[in-house]
Specification:
The chain has six helices and three strands. It is mainly alpha-helical and 174 residues long. The protein has a domain of 92 residues: Orthogonal Bundle (Arc Repressor Mutant, subunit A).
C-alpha cells in the first residue's frame, strides 16, 4: 500500500494548546520533525540526523533537544509521536477505503427503494366512501355518501364571472 505522504492533518487548536511555550525556532524545528516523521516514519535518536532534519547546526540542535523531546516517546533508538502515528493510520485507512471504493466504480450505491405505482392511494382514504346512497354501511338510503356538498343555487355562471371581475379590480387589473 502506498503511503499517505502528500498531506498531513494539523489540528490548530490542539497544536497551539500543546506548544504555546515554544520559541519561534522551536516551533519550526518541531514542525519539521513532525513532517519527517509523517513522511518517513519514526525518527532516529541521533543528534546528527535530527539536526539535519530541523536544519540547525548540531550545537544549536542540542540546545533545543530537551524542550522538543517532551513531545515524543524516545525508546528503542527512535523518536515517535503517538498522535501523529494515530492520524497517519487513520489517513491510510481512509485512503485504502477510497481505493477500494474506486475499484467498485466510486462511492457505494444506496439500495434503490422500489417506486410506488402511479394511481394507487398512499395511506388511509379521507372522507366518506363514494357510492350510491344505498351503498352506505347501515343501508340507510337517507344518508348520502357523496364527499362534496350540494351545489349552492347562487353559484351561477353570471355570479362567478362578476366575482372574478371584482377580484381583478382589487389587484389593479381590468
Amino acid at each position: 500500500m502506498a503511503k499517505v505522504d502528500i498531506w498531513m492533518p494539523i489540528y490548530i487548536g490542539d497544536y497551539l494548546a500543546d506548544t504555546m511555550r515554544l520559541t519561534t525556532e522551536q516551533h519550526g524545528a518541531y514542525f519539521l520533525l513532525l513532517m519527517e516523521h509523517w513522511k518517513s516514519g519514526p525518527l532516529p535518536d541521533d543528534d546528527e540526523e535530527l539536526a539535519a532534519i530541523v536544519r540547525l547546526p548540531r550545537a544549536q540542535w542540542v540546545k533545543q533537544r530537551t524542550k522538543l523531546a517532551r513531545f515524543f516517546v524516545i525508546e528503542g533508538g527512535t523518536w515517535r509521536q503517538k498522535r501523529l502515528e494515530r492520524e497517519f493510520e487513520a489517513a491510510q485507512a481512509r485512503r485504502e477505503s477510497a481505493r477500494e471504493s474506486g475499484k467498485k466504480g466510486g462511492r457505494p450505491r444506496k439500495e434503490e427503494t422500489p417506486k410506488k405505482p402511479i394511481g394507487k392511494p398512499i395511506g388511509k382514504p379521507m372522507g366518506k366512501p363514494i357510492g350510491k346512497p344505498t351503498d352506505n354501511l347501515q343501508g340507510n338510503p337517507q344518508e348520502t355518501s357523496s364527499p362534496s356538498p350540494s351545489p349552492d343555487p347562487s353559484c351561477t355562471r353570471e355570479n362567478v364571472s362578476s366575482s372574478l371581475v371584482d377580484i381583478h379590480e382589487w389587484g389593479g387589473r381590468r
